[in-house]
Task: structure prediction
Amino acid sequence: MRVFFIGFGQAGGKIVDMFIEQDKKAPVRSFRGIAVNTARTDLMGLRNIELKDRILIGQTVVKGHGVGTDNVTGAKITADEIDSIINTIDSRGTHDIDAFVVIAGLGGGTGSGGTPVLCRHLKRIYREPVYAVGILPAPEEGRLYSYNAARSLSTLVNEADNTFIFDNSAWKNEGESVRMAYERLNDEIVRRFGVLFRAGEVGKTGVGEMVVDSSEIINTLRGGGVSSIGYAISEKVTKSAKQKKGFLGGFSVKKKDNAEEVLTGEDKSAKIIGLVRRAMLGRLTLPCDYTTAERALVLIAGPSDEMDRKGVEKSKSWVEENIAGVEVRGGDYPLESSKIAAVVVLASIGDAPRIRELLEIAKETKEDVIRSKERRVTMFDDDSVDPLFE
Ligand SMILES: Nc1nc2c(ncn2[C@@H]2O[C@H](COP(=O)(O)OP(=O)(O)OP(=O)(O)O)[C@@H](O)[C@H]2O)c(=O)[nH]1
Result:
């Protein structure tokens, strides 16, 4: 799938920068990416997105210093400067892309406010689907972040064709601050979505046993709403690709042994089914009740001689038995790697506790703000002293 990424705000920009870095190492280039921000220093810190693809907005309002967690201002600046953002996107070329993906932290100001606005305009202008990847704040970041995220997400689900969620709080370790975990979390995001968004692109390793093309991804996501992704990776399965770092390389699975595991027939299928189960039952990008998913997509990527049609078919049936809907698509694609990766997209989820919690916090926050405004008394309420002028 050829993707045009837009990183909105600090988190979005950093993550798109990593996608571009990953793409530079891939056998075929599938990604294009730009970053949009109200903070100059955030844009300057990027390493892989070209300078001309970093757009600073809101200069006259916030002078390059960011919107300070005010997502209403983030939305307003984006709406006011939408033409210059769209012009930049246009000038980078959109004729050969399959989808837009806008990425942002939903708890802040710029990305949280700007993403729903940008998605609305992209959908209005282009025929390609527009997806969002929204990062949820951890509770420890405070009520303002939760409030922002709930408002942004409630708007975003109506503007994007589908919204993938990554929940920071589900991924940071006990005792670790969210800030300390960013690098690791971003790595997790880029690895999962990299396997998904690269599906259907043919590299020199050839085509898979059961090819998944971008239309299958698009059809899986057609229902809208929010989606979550599961992922699992095998131990090393081949010697041949072992020396090369490869696309899935660098992943810190336990080193087992150096012996080549030659899998045949049932073994190959069993390995794939096992991986898919681990992907779906393990930690999802958004922890949720997977039985409420309307659609799913099962993707297997790895060395071509490990791809197995029967394994994919059986995995799809297993996923279908476990989700609410009946539409389960899937396939595989070969990668120059010594490991097999499985990605399960659980699309249009009906229930996720963390989102319910965020919506509840937002409701309470709104009520508290109204109450505190009503109760507010100041030392200067007394009008017995005349002001200098009215
Ligand atoms: N996973 C992840 N989350 C991040 C990262 N940076 C920030 N966040 C989260 O994103 C939210 C804040 O969004 P930012 O992207 O920093 O904010 P912004 O869009 O630049 O908006 P302002 O700074 O308010 O102008 C918070 O919930 C952070 O925890 C990152 O590198 N990775």
